[in-house]
Amino acid sequence: MFARTKRLTLRPGWPEEAETLAGAIAHEAVATKLAHVPWPYTVADAEAFLALPHRPNDARFLILSHEGAYPVLVGGIGLSALAPGVAEFGYWLTPSAWGRGYATEAGRAVVQTARHSLPLRQLHARHHLDNPSSRRVLDKLGFREVRREASFSLARGRHVDSAVLTLAVDEGVEAEVDRMAMAA
């Protein structure tokens, strides 16, 4: 599965990209914002991630910016099936890509993929409370907080205060149409 936006290409990762992937994600400031990423992050971790089997309702993408002369790996985003009709939404960006709107742009493409290409009814996401930038992205995508709880961070080696958010896959369709009409 692939997706293309104005500035980004979302596509599966390839085994030969392990070094590039490790270089992009292996920043303590990235790893400590995520739940399932170890710190330090090694090429072996990237190889293991790229070798994970794909389940039918999973959609894992590398995010490549194509604003320059050549595409550059700037992050990862995806959906992991939790239960029938339900998937967890997650993403990360390398620090040099922060603040450019890539997470929101890629997130919109993945939510649209969930709406139109996957048999999903609901998306779940979580963010550590000390990561307000992630919360802003999730708010822009239409996620709504349902509770707060501690969640384990592999990189930190401990539980971290987090917010859990959900998005009904068909939710936001009218809001998107309304926003487009207002912009016209």
UniProtKB/TrEMBL annotation:
InterPro entries, per database record: Acyl_CoA_acyltransferase, GNAT_dom, N-acetyltransferase
The organism's place on the tree of life at top rank: Bacteria
A GO term, aspect molecular function: acyltransferase activity, transferring groups other than amino-acyl groups
The N-acetyltransferase domain, residue ranges: 8-170
PANTHER family: GNAT FAMILY, PUTATIVE (AFU_ORTHOLOGUE AFUA_3G00765)-RELATED-RELATED
Name used for this protein in its record: N-acetyltransferase domain-containing protein
Lineage: Bacteria, Pseudomonadati, Pseudomonadota, Alphaproteobacteria, Sphingomonadales
